[in-house]
Design a protein that fits this description.
12 strands, 279 residues, single chain, 5-stranded mixed sheet
Length: 279
């Protein structure tokens, strides 16, 4: 493993990384930050659709570089420049209260919506009007765990590369195709034309998830549309769906938060789509 270069707080590389905390700079440079060992490990192993490595640079404290030597080696193998810096430098770049000693600079990795459609997806999560970055990242993680084929963030949703979104995805951002900035009408129309049934998840939905499962209607290609946690989906978005489905509340809870409801819906579809085991 090559010896990483030592870098100071005054380095232009540090200043450039620090600026990526702001959305306008992320968009201009088409780069974002991935913090912590899990995210950096996934970034080091990821390549874009053009075959180029996603991880460009890695900032690490000496302690983290020693503890996570395998990640540093993987970063160097991917062609990333590795910089050693003290904890104060990483704290200046980091968007967390307690930095974990590893911060990667990554290329944008979102996929064109047309590529997602061309792959004939069977399970898709569409985030429409999701404004909280933590929710967006957590739903992405749920979609990954449920085996979804893609995630779509509409133009009314939060920035995929917001540091909180990236952290909340816990590496899942690097596991499945994600399209961004797609108008919700275009997303629904494109998915429906690709043979995907559109289900809007809403606590006030007219259809019950248990009834859908009992009726055997969820085995085909499905896209779940999730809205804002505070006010749900606008009526015009609900009207685009083939059905508006609620997760039944069997106990006394007032409601489910967005990520929990998304997990229930996505896993319900994943189970319905899997062939049943016999014998």
């Amino acid at each position: 493993m090559a010896t990483p270069e030592v870098i100071s707080a005054r380095s232009p590389r540090v200043a450039a990384a620090r600026r990526l905390a702001r959305r306008n700079f992320r968009g201009k440079e088409r780069r974002f930050l991935a913090e912590g060992p899990q995210a950096v490990r996934e970034a080091a192993g990821h390549r874009g659709s053009d075959g180029e490595p996603t991880l460009i640079e890695l900032f690490a404290t000496a302690e983290a570089a020693d503890r996570y030597a395998d990640i540093v080696e993987a970063a160097q193998a991917a062609g990333a420049r590795v910089h050693l810096a003290d904890g104060d430098v990483l704290a200046d770049v980091s968007q967390t209260v307690t930095p974990q000693g590893l911060i990667g600079v990554c290329r944008f990795l979102d996929a064109p919506f047309e590529e997602i459609l061309a792959a004939k997806p069977k399970l898709v999560a569409v985030l429409a009007h999701v404004r909280d970055p933590g929710n967006a990242g957590t739903v992405l993680r749920c979609a990954d765990a449920a085996g979804a084929d893609a995630v779509v963030l509409t133009d009314a949703s939060v920035d995929l590369y917001n540091p909180k979104s990236v952290r909340a995805s816990v590496g899942s951002l690097f596991h499945l195709p994600v399209a961004v900035g797609v108008p919700v009408e275009q997303a629904v129309r494109g998915l429906r034309d690709a043979g995907v049934r559109i289900l809007a998840a809403d606590g006030a939905g007219t259809d019950d998830l248990d009834d859908e499962l009992d009726a055997g209607t969820m085995g085909g290609p499905t896209a779940w549309v999730f809205g804002n946690e505070a006010w749900g989906l606008p009526e015009e978005t609900r009207a685009l769906a083939d059905a508006v489905v609620r997760v039944p509340i069997h106990g006394k809870a007032e409601s489910l938060n967005l990520a929990t409801a998304a997990a229930v819906c996505l896993y319900a579809s994943a189970r319905a789509q899997r062939p049943r085991r016999t014998g």
